[in-house]
């Protein structure tokens, strides 16, 4: 039986609710709320009436709020104690009370929200966000939403499904006013709400309209922004269930067309399916779609979606390009997209697809596509880069740098897809009047090398690809797109950076390749530069270098590849370079020349995957560069020749068999005390005021070299001479210009070899004057002994007459030192011959004969010298060579130039007077048994072939054989007058033992 208080409370509740329903304000609203809650807890059968009472309270509070909102007043329901008490009571009932209350309270809240939103909305809200801002400003609405969310947490799986069904049912009858409620409460179980809404949308979709309802789009977009993962899962499940229904794909595409959030999620789903390799399992069948949604319409829709997607659109585009080999519609789709994209770009509009590329969102994938060997994929990637370059030049430049750095060994070497893409990129966007400049890209590539020279593989790729591009440009036809880019001209402008790169690599060359390491290590010597005339800091501090992952590219490859790049430039032909660049290039070319020689003289080099060139090929490239570079700039020729000669004589002399002063002598014996050395001088020497210069070691005699310079190997000698010839040759085959080059070589040799600047003129003084220059003459002689390559260089100079005339001081010093030594009695001999002295004298005479400084018959001296004794050699050198050179200054004036530009002296008009030939004639007559054939060739034959008929010539012939009267008879030889024997087969006047003249037929 019902208790009396409950009945009284029920009567009070009914009476109060009746007054409230009639619009009569209550005196105590709190008492009514308390009575309603008590009835709800103690008398469940009255719950409908109680909830109706609660509805009145909330309706009244919302009504007051809406009136205040229209007047921009604050929410008065915040101070409504009745609504606050109702919220607290219902929240306590749901939290503490039985679980059966949760479905009831949540159902009442949802229905009340739907009715209130529809009843008090005089116009459609702008969107879900605007509706949320409007309704959530009301405390009563916030209480209802919080109660609904609290009930949702207490529901089980079945009750939750029923609640969602009820929520969407109310949404179907109260849309669009209830959309914001679905969007807000859907966050409690987003996956189920999104999946249910998608299913309902697909089921309602018939294809008779172009797009889903605006409410669906807004709710799904709102939920998708807050719960991206759930939206993707729902969309992925919907796509995978497409086989069960034929409307899902058109519906999802139209939904994505209306919502950027859904479109972005669909892109992610597409990428996930592609990564899982499940795209081929999804069989889309357009024939089952609605009639008004055909494949062309879908392709246009998808193309528009790709342009609007902000993330991953580039990756999707590239994937479609890959799928184009299997599906033809992919090419049609991409072509449609590019048509729309190009139209936007040319109209100076932007597109999210291009913004994604500009923001560096997917450049790596785009660049990989450019370097792909799939033609269509590469074409799509290149077109995207070119279109993006309209908006950002950095994309264009960075793409060029990436392709220059690319070199995939897995791709067939002959295809070179990265070069194909690079050529297309360099051509710029088609039809664009303001194409981006290529120079910033090449500048960036060179700076990339300079900033990270330790990344060898990447640096080598840039240099190699750029060299290939330049070769393609040089071989391209006139007017071709490659010629219009003019990469050769751009690299010419950036020659400073190329030279800096080359210098950086040269400074980082392998530490195990050092000058003279091969020869000196073999001889057990330690190379020193103490005696060098000029000491250079050839090497820069070497920084630690990272080893490449594959270890295929070495420092040598980088250096060689840089030279190949420079070889592709027509330096000096088409574009002139500055003086600073010209001098630096000359120095680097010579340094690279010696580097190649050192590299191959040090033994086997480590194998490299890119080293496909021999030493001769590298040297031939150097010769060509030196020839082209030096032929157009005298300053370049001057610098290159100086570097070559200094390197051959001082810095890299070990390559050519040279040695230093310390290497020639052995100092193994311990040094004595200074006091003991002084005691060996004797008392008399100390008492006298004379100065004695010792040429040796006290107590050991003169210093005798323990070893001599080995001299240059023929191959090394020829390589150096070829380099000198390359520097001196003229580009227009002007022989006079070539002579000028070798004349400078002569002057430079004098500068490097001669110890000072005095007495360096062309004339030869009196023989007695050599006492003044004896010390410097011996120093020059010592230089030739330590650097035998000097003989080869002088021999080359002698071939280009009259260049050797400028080396007169060197020839004079050699002749003076040899003359003094032949006169000495203490020189070491071997088999009766002064071997080293004979070698020097012979080489000297050969040079002078080759340069036509000694006319016939004096030009044969180097042949007959081996048949003479020491005094005879000294006599001939003094009377024939020295006196002739003293009286006939070795000047270029003595030479005439023929029409071909060659300089020479006519032997018929420049025969020496008898006073220079008679000493040789008389000396040879003493040894006719040994030199008879030479005597006939030197004297008799020429006089018989060229008879002059003059009395002077006949007198010369007679007196030459007889010794005659006068001074020449007294100088027939070192031992005075002597008889002569006629040469075989000769005729003339020959003096007999008694001095009578006989005619020999």
UniProtKB/TrEMBL annotation:
Residues 5-206 form the Integrator complex subunit 5 N-terminal domain. Residues 942-1001 are annotated as: Disordered. Residues 947-957 have a biased composition (Polar residues). It comes from the Eukaryota. InterPro entries: INTS5, INTS5_C, INTS5_N. Signal peptide: none annotated. One of its GO terms (cellular component) is integrator complex. One of its GO terms (biological process) is snRNA 3'-end processing. Residues 215-929 form the Integrator complex subunit 5 C-terminal domain. This is Integrator complex subunit 5 C-terminal domain-containing protein. It comes from Anopheles dirus.
């Amino acid at each position: 039986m019902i208790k009396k208080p409950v009945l009284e409370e029920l009567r009070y509740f009914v009476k109060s609710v009746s007054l409230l329903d009639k619009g009569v304000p209550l005196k105590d609203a709190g008492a009514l709320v308390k009575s309603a809650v008590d009835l709800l807890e103690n008398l469940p059968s009255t719950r409908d009436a109680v909830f109706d009472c609660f509805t009145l309270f909330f309706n009244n509070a919302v009504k007051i709020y809406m009136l205040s909102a229209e007047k921009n007043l604050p929410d008065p329901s915040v101070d409504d104690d009745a609504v606050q008490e109702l919220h607290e009571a219902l929240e306590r009932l749901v939290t503490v009370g039985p679980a059966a209350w949760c479905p009831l309270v949540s159902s009442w809240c949802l229905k009340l929200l739907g009715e209130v939103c529809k009843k008090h909305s005089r116009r459609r809200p702008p969107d879900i966000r605007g509706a949320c801002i409007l309704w959530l400003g009301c405390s009563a609405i916030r209480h209802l939403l919080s109660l609904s969310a609290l009930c949702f947490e207490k529901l089980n799986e079945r009750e939750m499904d029923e609640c969602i069904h009820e929520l969407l049912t109310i949404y179907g009858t109260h849309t669009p006013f209830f959309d914001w409620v679905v969007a807000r409460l859907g966050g409690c179980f987003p996956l189920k709400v999104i999946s249910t809404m998608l299913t309902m949308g697909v089921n309602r979709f018939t294809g008779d309209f172009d797009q889903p309802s605006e409410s669906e789009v807004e709710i799904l977009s709102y939920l998708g922004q807050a719960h991206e993962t759930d939206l993707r899962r729902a969309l992925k499940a919907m796509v995978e269930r497409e086989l069960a229904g034929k409307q899902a794909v058109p519906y999802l595409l139209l939904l994505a067309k209306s919502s950027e959030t859904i479109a972005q999620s669909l892109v992610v789903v597409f990428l996930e399916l592609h990564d899982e390799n499940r795209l081929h399992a999804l069989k889309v069948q357009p024939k089952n779609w609605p009639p008004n949604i055909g494949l062309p319409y879908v392709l246009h829709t998808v193309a528009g979606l790709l342009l609007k997607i902000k993330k991953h659109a580039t990756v999707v585009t590239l994937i479609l390009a890959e799928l184009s080999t299997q599906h033809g519609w992919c090419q049609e789709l991409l072509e449609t997209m590019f048509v729309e994209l190009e139209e936007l770009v040319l109209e100076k509009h932007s597109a999210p697809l291009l913004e994604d590329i500009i923001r560096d969102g997917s450049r790596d994938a785009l660049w990989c596509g450019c370097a792909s060997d799939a033609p269509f994929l590469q074409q799509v990637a290149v077109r995207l880069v070119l279109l993006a370059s309209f908006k950002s030049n950095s994309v264009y430049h960075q793409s060029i740098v990436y392709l220059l750095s690319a070199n995939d060994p897995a791709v067939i070497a002959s295809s070179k897809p990265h070069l194909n893409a690079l050529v297309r990129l360099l051509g710029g966007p088609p039809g664009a009047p303001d194409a981006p400049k290529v120079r910033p890209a090449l500048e960036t590539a060179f700076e990339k090398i300079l900033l990270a020279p330790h990344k060898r593989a990447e640096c080598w790729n840039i240099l190699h690809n750029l060299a290939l591009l330049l070769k393609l440009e040089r071989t391209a036809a006139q007017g071709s797109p490659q010629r219009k880019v003019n990469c050769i001209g751009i690299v010419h402008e950036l020659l400073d950076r190329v030279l800096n790169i080359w210098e950086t690599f040269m400074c980082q060359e392998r530490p195990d390749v050092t000058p003279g390491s091969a020869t000196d290590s073999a001889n057990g010597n330690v190379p020193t530069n103490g005696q060098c005339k000029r000491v250079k800091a050839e090497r820069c501090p070497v920084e630690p270098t990272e080893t490449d992952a594959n270890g295929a590219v070495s420092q040598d490859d980088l250096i060689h590849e840089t030279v190949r790049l420079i070889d592709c430039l027509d330096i000096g032909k088409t574009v002139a370079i500055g003086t600073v660049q010209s001098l630096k290039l000359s120095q680097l070319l010579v340094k690279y020349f010696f580097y190649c020689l050192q590299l191959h003289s040090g033994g086997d080099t480590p194998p490299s995957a890119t080293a496909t060139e021999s030493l001769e090929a590298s040297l031939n490239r150097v010769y060509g560069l030196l020839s082209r570079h030096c032929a157009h700039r005298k300053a370049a020729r001057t610098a290159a020749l100086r570097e070559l000669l200094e390197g051959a004589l001082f810095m890299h002399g070990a390559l050519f068999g040279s040695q230093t002063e310390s290497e020639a002598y052995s100092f193994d014996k311990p040094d004595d005390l200074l006091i003991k050395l002084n005691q060996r001088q004797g008392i008399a020497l100390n008492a006298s005021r004379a100065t004695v210069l010792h040429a040796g070691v006290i107590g050991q005699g003169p210093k005798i070299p323990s070893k001599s310079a080995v001299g240059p190997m023929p191959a090394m000698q020829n390589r150096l001479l070829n380099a000198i010839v390359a520097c001196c040759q003229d580009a227009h085959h002007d022989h006079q210009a070539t002579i000028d080059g070798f004349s400078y070589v002569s002057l430079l040799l004098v500068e490097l070899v001669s110890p000072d600047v005095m007495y360096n003129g062309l004339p030869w003084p009196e023989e007695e004057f050599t006492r003044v220059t004896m010390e410097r003459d011996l120093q020059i002689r010592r230089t030739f002994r330590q650097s035998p390559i000097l003989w080869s260089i002088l021999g080359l100079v002698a071939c280009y007459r009259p260049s050797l005339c400028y080396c007169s001081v060197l020839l004079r010093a050699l002749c003076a030192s040899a003359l003094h030594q032949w006169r000495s009695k203490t020189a070491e001999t071997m088999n009766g011959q002064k071997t080293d002295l004979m070698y020097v004298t012979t080489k000297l005479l050969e040079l002078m004969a080759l340069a036509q400084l000694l006319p016939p018959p004096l030009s044969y001296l180097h042949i007959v010298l081996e048949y003479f004794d020491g005094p005879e050699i000294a006599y001939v050198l003094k009377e024939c060579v020295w006196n002739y050179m003293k009286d006939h200054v070795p000047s270029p004036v003595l030479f005439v130039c023929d029409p071909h530009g060659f300089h020479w002296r006519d032997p018929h008009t420049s025969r020496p007077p008898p006073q220079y030939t008679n000493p040789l004639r008389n000396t040879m007559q003493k040894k006719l048994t040994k030199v008879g054939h030479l005597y006939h060739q030197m004297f008799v034959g020429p006089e018989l072939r060229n008879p002059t008929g003059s009395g002077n010539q006949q007198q010369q012939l007679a007196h030459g054989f007889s010794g005659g009267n006068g001074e020449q008879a007294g100088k027939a030889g070192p031992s005075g007058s002597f008889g002569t024997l006629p040469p075989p087969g000769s005729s003339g006047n020959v003096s007999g033992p008694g001095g009578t003249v006989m005619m020999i037929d």
